[in-house]
Specification:
Layout (H helix, E strand, L loop, with lengths): L7 E6 L8 E2 L3 E15 L8 E15 L4 H9 L3 E15 L7 E3 L6 E9 L7 E2 L8 E5 L2 E4 L7 E17 L12 E9 L2 E16 L11 E7 L7 E5 L2
Parallel strand pairs: 8-9
Antiparallel strand pairs: 1-2, 1-12, 3-4, 4-14, 5-11, 6-10, 7-11, 9-10, 12-13, 13-14, 13-15
């Protein structure tokens, strides 16, 4: 059979009979590498008289454009998750009051999480964060309330910060787990062309690398590397091809 296009790739986390199947969205490509080591027996002549296969390494890589918290957590981190999302406000515009108090309360102060800095809107020069009373070019912050110097009264600023939302996504809490802790999953790859299908079902996979790289004029394409091993019944999986 012929094969064309990226196909479809799925991962189903092991350890639960009701694990949600995770589809790698907007799949770019999947690569499978099956590499065996060999041992050659030589006599007095140049070519080996026998070759035997030893260890086999089965690895793969999936590139996908739709970033999904379920895939990242179920198939790589395997840690606790909760409903909610951590959001960013970048370049939120504000003006320091002309009279006391010289404070600015950001729009999402009620769910404020982390200060990411302040710059002058006119010049882009950065303010310096301090713990005490600010002087010109300085600021302090507490729970989303920014305090500035009287010398900066009336100045326009741009503020960056993180805040939370109770809905709209999933948050994964990353902790430092013990060595050897890892998720395993059932991997399924399938592709169809002209009514013919190739399917690969891999019983026990584990991820070894997750890469998320951004580009200034391109889409972010995460990559997930995985390795294949035998399951508890000493089976690797199934490869099926339409004749």
């Amino acid at each position: 059979m012929l094969s064309f296009g990226s196909g479809n790739f799925y991962g189903i986390a092991a350890g639960s009979t009701v694990a949600t199947p995770r589809k790698f969205g907007t799949l770019q490509d999947v690569t499978f590498d099956i590499t065996a080591s060999t041992k050659q027996l030589f006599g007095q002549n140049q070519f080996p008289v026998d070759i035997r296969r030893g260890e086999i390494k089965f690895t793969g890589k999936a590139k996908f454009a739709q970033i999904n918290a379920g895939i990242v957590n179920d198939l790589f981190f395997n840690q606790s998750s909760s409903t909610g999302v951590l959001l960013s406000a970048v370049g939120e515009s504000a003006q320091i009051p002309s009279s006391t108090p010289w404070t600015v309360t950001v729009q999402n102060a009620a769910t404020f999480d982390t200060d990411l800095g302040v710059i002058y809107a006119a010049t882009g020069a950065a303010f310096t964060k301090v713990s005490g009373t600010p002087t010109i070019g300085e600021y302090s912050e507490s729970a989303g309330v920014y305090t500035f110097s009287t010398s900066d009264a009336g100045v326009s600023v741009l503020i960056d910060y993180l805040y939370t939302s109770a809905t709209g996504g999933t948050k994964v809490a990353l902790t430092n787990q013990q060595m050897g802790t890892q998720p395993t999953f059932l991997g399924v790859f399938t592709t169809t062309i002209s009514g013919k299908t190739m399917t690969m079902k891999l019983n026990a996979c584990t991820t070894s690398k997750l890469s998320i790289g951004t580009k200034i004029q391109d889409y972010t394409i995460p990559e997930m590397d995985f390795e294949v091993m035998a399951d508890s019944g000493n089976n690797i999986g199934t490869i099926s091809m339409t004749s």
